[in-house]
Amino acid sequence: MSHWIVSPIVLPAMLAAILVLMVRRHLLPQRVLSMAGCVALLGIAIGQFWQAAGGDVTIYQLGHWPAPFGIVLVADRLSTLMVLVTTLLAPLVLLYAIGSGWDTRGRHFHPLFQFQLMGIIGAFLTGDLFNLFVFFEVLLIASYGLMIHAGGAERLRAGTQYVLFNLLGSTLFLFALGTIYAQTGTLNMADLALRVAELDAGANAGIRVAAVLLLMVFAIKAALLPLHFWLPASYALAPAPVAALFAIMTKVGAYGIIRVYTLVFPPELAITQGLFDTWLMPAALLTLALGMIGVLGAVRIERLVAFAVIGSMGLLLASVAVFTPDGIAAALYYAIHSTFATAALFLLVDVIQSRRGETAGRLVRARPFEGAPLVAGMFFVAAIAMTGLPPLSGFVGKLLILDAAFADPLVWWVWAVVLSASLVAVVGFARAGSIVFWKAHQQGPEPEETDPTSAPPVEDETAQNGSDEPAVPRPVLPMVAVGGLVAMLVALTIGAGPVNRALAATAEQLFSPAPYLEEVLATEGKVIKDDAHGDEDHAGDEHADEGEH
Amino acid sequence: MELLIATAVGALTAAGIYMVLRLRTFPVIIGTSLLSYAVNVFLFASGRLALNAPPVLRDGVETYTDPLPQALVLTAIVISFGMTAVVVIIALGSWLSSDDDLVDVPAVSDGDAAEPALPREQRQEAAQ
């Protein structure tokens, strides 16, 4: 058995340990190692994606214990796709953090960043529900550290709230897992799929409770109404690179819903009829509406983007809630798109905040700032993508979702809400953009200089300078990072055809889980050389197992 | 036995939810701790309750208790312990850097809300 599948989890874990134990006081090695790790991860992710693209399901048994007794990692099309998106996002976000000096404003940014990547990738790859919980906790505890990176009263307050909300989410997750275990006696997803299907449809109270509890856990992560309250403050007050990385975290919740509710509780399952298939769609549409109204009502630009995240999650989950291969494929396309669009917007907001000086993210008129045309252009492109206007990927994604919605009884509700929410979002983003960039010129230059203390202080002398003094040339790396994210959006638009075919194949694989179940449950584990028990069970496997080593 | 466990889980959960809904961080943290105790007992009971039974296969033993929930509870205890430590520290930091220990984030205004980019010392000076 090759250790290839587990490598994207082990690599950041080891790297984080090295970063925190060996080079904690040296900035340059931290940056170089962290970036090298991200690039290596990207290479691994591309390799795994390539391997899974043919439709093969590859598993890795931790400790060589066979499922369902041991934990398995499963690399199928969906999980490798999500890992690929994460590892495409990570180097760009890291580039921004390095270029803007965010990583010098507090301690241990790079180790936490690597641990966060480990948790996210692990959550995507694992084939065991309890292991999913553990990886959720890994990514959460790293995100707690990243969330309060650089400190500040407001951020700590938001961080407290974020941690408490997620603690409650974890408790709920454990309750769900306990209920599932009590009903089925297993937590391996493939084994669960078989056992849930065999349950007596008459005595279904326990498993229905478990299904809804689990959905709530994922809904908290995915910021589905009415469990979205944690998101605006947390994302708006998190450091910009962290908020950009968090763009993938809401997708972890969406991934959980897609994975569990196609594999374990598929839509045609009689025992959970009338649960999520009835009210996931209305909740998603309300989330979309609320998010876009929030965009319109925001008074600070960072909160505007945070509400846009909620709106995009609503649209994504509305597409998931159709529960057809087309709907899932459209949702995946939109998930990739909204990850990059959100990350680009959060980074741009940080550029705007730091360059506007004291006005920061408030949506009021201020003097035009240096380099505004480039920032404005980027913001314009990212906003077009986010609101789903042609020609960028948001439009393609929305089109796919609207098309897929025909399979749903609520199709006209979907069309009405999606289209009017888009209009509201366009107005919201246009208002923000025109206040920040356009009306700035009507304000005219003021003689009074910007207060230099508003510039983020750079603690490390060797750090690349992010200060506001005009004499110092602005670092180009932040804009390169944002440009990279925008380029991803453009690439996603241009390559929409091939991407879509790959995603359709992904969705197809989700709806015919037989090879997945076969691969996970039928693969033999290690042979225990024990004369007392079970020799006859394993006698035949011995040479097959030897051959794999 | 079943009644005792069920009552314990129910009482801990009810108390935990009540405390979580409080306004200040300390009761809320106590509430999350109570909830994590409740969930640990619940997880333990999810493998069925068997008294004085071994969890490991052995010759000559007829009844076993399920070993897996015990492993799950152990993991959950460690994680919730660590998470509680983290939230205590963050809540402490939040209390020290502002005047109160309320859970709520103050309402956003387009006025002079403090700069997130400023370090804590400067923000404290500004607040005083």
TrEMBL record, chain A:
The record, for Pfam families, names: Proton_antipo_M (PF00361)
Q: Which residues does the UniProt record annotate as the domain NADH:quinone oxidoreductase/Mrp antiporter transmembrane? A: 127-421
Q: Output one GO BP term.
A: ATP synthesis coupled electron transport
Would the keyword Transcription regulation be found if you checked this record's keyword annotation? no
**What GO CC terms are in its UniProt record?**
plasma membrane
Against InterPro entries, the record matches this protein to:
CPA3_Na-H_Antiporter_D, NADH_UbQ_OxRdtase, ND/Mrp_TM
Under the GO molecular function aspect, what terms does this record hold?
NADH dehydrogenase (ubiquinone) activity
Asked whether the keyword Cell membrane is assigned, the reply is yes
Q: Which UniProt keywords apply?
A: Cell membrane, Membrane, Transmembrane, Transmembrane helix
What ranges does the record give for the region Disordered, renumbered to this chain?
442-473
Q: Where are the transmembrane segments?
A: 6-23, 32-50, 70-97, 162-182, 202-224, 236-258, 278-297, 304-325, 331-352, 372-390, 410-430
Domain of life of the native organism: Bacteria
Annotated membrane topology is: Multi-pass membrane protein
Coiled coil where?
Answer: none
Question: Where would you find this protein in the cell?
Answer: Cell membrane; Membrane
Q: Which family does it belong to?
A: Belongs to the CPA3 antiporters (TC 2.A.63) subunit D family.
Q: What does this protein do?
A: NDH-1 shuttles electrons from NADH, via FMN and iron-sulfur (Fe-S) centers, to quinones in the respiratory chain. The immediate electron acceptor for the enzyme in this species is believed to be ubiquinone. Couples the redox reaction to proton translocation (for every two electrons transferred, four hydrogen ions are translocated across the cytoplasmic membrane), and thus conserves the redox energy in a proton gradient.
What NCBIfam families does this protein's entry cite?
PRK12666.1
What name does this protein carry? Multisubunit potassium/proton antiporter, PhaD subunit
Q: Which organism is it from?
A: Limimaricola pyoseonensis
From TrEMBL, chain B:
Q: Record's GO cellular component, any one?
A: plasma membrane
Q: Where in the cell is it found?
A: Cell membrane
Q: Quick one: where's region Disordered?
A: 107-128
Record membrane topology: Multi-pass membrane protein
InterPro entries linked to this entry: CPA3_antiporter_subunitC, NUOK/Mnh_C1-like
Q: Which UniProt keywords apply?
A: Cell membrane, Membrane, Transmembrane, Transmembrane helix
TM ranges are 26-51, 72-96
Does the record's keyword annotation contain Transmembrane helix? yes
Would the keyword Methyltransferase be found if you checked this record's keyword annotation? no
Domain of life assignment: Bacteria
Pfam families associated with the record: Oxidored_q2
User: Compositional bias (Basic and acidic residues) spans?
Assistant: 118-128
- Kindly report the protein's main subcellular placement as a broad class: membrane
Entry similarity comment? Belongs to the CPA3 antiporters (TC 2.A.63) subunit C family.
**Official protein name in the record:** Multisubunit potassium/proton antiporter, PhaC subunit
